[in-house]
Design brief:
heterodimer; A: 13% strand; B: alpha/beta; Rossmann fold; 11 helices
């Protein structure tokens, strides 16, 4: 686990493995007096996508990132910014790095990915979880596992694994903000 | 994997400039609500079919995958300008990949009833930054022709409100803070048309005076299409096609 803590109240926790990210978020929250966790898919966009018509055609990595950004905009509006305005700490798990790493691993240009998330404030502290909690990196409960499944079409395990590994490798390359 | 982007660009170029086949054409109809786009699109499609074209129509916000997601959120008025923009961007991208580019690759003629310029005009009218929105839509796919149906805000307002009340987002009530949908629509469409007029200049739209009769507009569109259909394929589209080929190659 790479850990860079600061006193800022928005703490980003990113990683490929959803269970490990959730555990790290809980741990980060224990260290603060007033705060909460903002989780992926608070808007329910991906829940709706999961039950959408399969014949409509699989979404690409670009489409999935646009949806991730829409969900993040929702989280910022309803969870993150209001809590910060009240002086509370927010642990955003995941935040930007997970999605950026996935986008880069899927071959999307860095400039496009960076622009997409331009509306999101930089976190004051960031934790990147590299370990897999249960050995099954990329649980389907998380964005990366969900996205890899969608792109791979559910029956291309080799491709899914490759994309998961590439996302994990990208996450290791990110320079997380230091105070 | 699908090969390098450079090789995919070459493949795109070769395919769309092959003199042996009829290349796909993309024609976009743009303009504010009430400008008569849909009527003209239907007339144009009927005529194109009679001319032997294989025509595919794509409408704004019509991806079978994304549309239900947008619809449910619009119904509870839950979208901020950013969410509105990003969800429509997702819908557009999904249609580009699933409908528009496959049809163009197959040599068909695609009529887009609204295209990315709708997003640019509406999102900027909602206060978003044009540069950000434009980049969200990258890689950009440029139509061979964009017909812009020009009407005044007053005409748009009269035509739209003659038969119905504009809905919450159509009226821009999410950003105008005006309770009356008709009054809100008038304010919002004025902003949208201002953005459209700027885009028409920047991107060289073919402007159709949509205050004229239906027949006159249709004849003008036919004549302009015949004049413009021989234009060479725009190399600006190489990135968008290469991106799509890469996505397909991965599957």
């Amino acid at each position: 686990m790479t850990r860079h803590r600061a006193s800022a109240q928005l703490i980003a926790v990113d990683g490929v493995d959803a269970a490990a990210v959730a555990a790290a978020a809980k741990e980060a929250l224990r260290a603060v007096t007033r705060g909460g966790i903002s989780r992926w898919d608070a808007s329910g966009v991906f829940q709706d996508l999961a039950v959408a018509d399969g014949d409509a055609g699989a979404p690409s990595a670009r489409t999935l990132l646009l949806l991730y950004a829409a969900d993040l905009a929702f989280r910022l509006r309803w969870q993150i910014r209001p809590a910060l305005a009240e002086g509370r700490t927010v642990v955003a798990a995941p935040y930007l790095f997970t999605a950026m790493a996935f986008g880069r691993a899927a071959g999307l240009p860095s400039s496009w990915v960076m622009n997409l998330f331009r509306f999101a404030p930089r976190p004051g502290a960031a934790i990147v979880v590299h370990e897999s909690r249960d050995g099954r990196r990329g649980s389907k409960d998380g964005f990366v596992g969900f996205a890899c499944d969608r792109i791979a079409g559910g029956d291309e395990e080799r491709f899914r694994r490759k994309l998961l590994d590439a996302t994990a490798a990208r996450l290791r390359q990110f320079h997380v903000p230091r105070r | 994997m699908a090969g390098s982007i450079a090789s995919l660009r070459r493949r795109a170029r070769k395919h769309f400039t092959d003199p042996a086949g009829r290349r796909g054409l993309l024609v976009a109809f743009e303009g504010p609500d009430g400008s008569g786009k849909t009527t003209q699109r239907k007339l144009f499609k009927t005529w194109l079919k009679s001319e032997g074209y294989d025509v595919v129509t794509t409408k704004w916000n019509s991806s079978e995958l994304i549309k239900p997601i947008i619809k449910s959120r619009k119904s509870v008025r839950a979208l901020s300008p950013e969410e509105f923009s990003l969800l429509h961007g997702a819908d557009f991208r999904h249609r580009v990949e699933q409908v528009i580019l496959p049809a163009l690759w197959a040599g068909k003629l695609v009529i887009a009833d609204r295209f990315l310029f709708t997003a640019l005009a509406r999102d900027v009218a909602r206060g978003l930054d044009l540069d950000w929105v434009l980049k969200v839509y990258q890689p950009l796919l440029w139509p061979d022709m964009v017909f812009y149906f020009s009407v005044s805000p007053v005409t748009s307002g009269k035509r739209v409100t003659a038969t119905r009340t504009p809905n919450f987002y159509e009226a821009g009530q999410d950003v105008t803070d005006v309770d009356d949908p008709v009054e809100s629509y008038q304010r919002f469409i004025t902003r949208v048309i201002r953005e459209y007029e700027s885009l028409a200049l920047i991107f060289n739209f073919i402007t159709v005076d949509a205050e004229r009769s239906i027949g006159e507009q249709h004849r003008q569109i036919r004549a302009l299409f015949v004049k413009g259909r021989e234009r060479p394929w725009s190399d600006w589209n190489a990135d968008a096609v290469a991106d799509w080929l890469a996505v397909n190659g991965r599957r």
